[in-house]
């Protein structure tokens, strides 16, 4: 899979760019995710990547140093997932999800991409950075989530949707569907 064909890889690059913009005094800033500040949100995204990778490799990500900076941890987990997506055995490994069995690459291009996309906006909002998300990824994520409907509204999932303004753009409609007020 080429990097330009992967919504996940584009979104991961965007998250990394936003993460690299966090200044020392911004780690405690509150995010739109009520329970997390910027540091905790990034920790969640890193942990999600680790958890998903451990589905196809139970030994997990060996080289992740929990004492490293969050940016360094992010770089390790995204490099690991990027390599897994380019490894035909791992990319095609069947995994069980709430949506049934699917290839590992579909889980990454679905759930992991959507989670990272949402949290890119959350982090950008928390640190007052550019909140513009990858347009194509937004369209893919919105389509996938609307197909799932209320199934995404589970504990630890998405909040109830926010009614979008009638003239809202695609990104705002997507974020509103995930329960975020824009």
Strand order of the largest sheet: 1-2
Number of helices: 7
- What is the number of domains? 1
N-end to C-end Cα span: 33 Å
The oligomeric state of the chains shown is single chain
Using the coordinates shown, work out and report the CATH topology. Four Helix Bundle (Hemerythrin (Met), subunit A)
Give, in order, the helices and strands: HHHHEEHHH
Overall residue-averaged pLDDT value: 92
Q: Report low-confidence residues grouped into runs of 5 or more.
A: none
- Give the CATH superfamily: dinb family like domain
Write down the Rg. 16 Å
Identify the overall geometry.
Answer: globular
Q: Structural class per helix/strand content?
A: mainly alpha
Using the coordinates above, name the CATH class: Mainly Alpha
- Range of strand content: under 5%
User: Can you count the beta strands?
Assistant: 2
């Amino acid at each position: 899979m080429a990097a330009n064909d992967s919504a996940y890889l584009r979104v991961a690059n965007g998250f990394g760019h936003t993460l690299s913009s966090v200044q020392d005094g911004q780690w405690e800033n509150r995010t739109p995710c009520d329970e997390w500040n910027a540091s905790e949100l990034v920790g969640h995204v890193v942990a999600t990547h680790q958890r998903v990778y451990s589905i196809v490799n139970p030994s997990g990500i060996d080289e992740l140093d929990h004492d490293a900076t969050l940016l360094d941890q992010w770089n390790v987990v995204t490099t690991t997932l990027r390599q897994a997506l380019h490894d035909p055995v791992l990319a095609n490994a069947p995994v069980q999800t709430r949506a049934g069995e699917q290839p590992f690459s579909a889980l990454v291009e679905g759930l992991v991409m959507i989670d990272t996309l949402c949290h890119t906006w959350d982090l950008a909002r928390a640190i007052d950075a550019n909140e513009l998300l990858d347009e194509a990824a937004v369209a893919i994520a919105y389509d996938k989530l609307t197909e799932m409907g209320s199934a995404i509204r589970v504990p630890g999932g998405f909040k109830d949707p926010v009614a979008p303004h009638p003239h809202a753009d695609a990104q705002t409609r997507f974020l509103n569907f995930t329960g975020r007020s824009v």
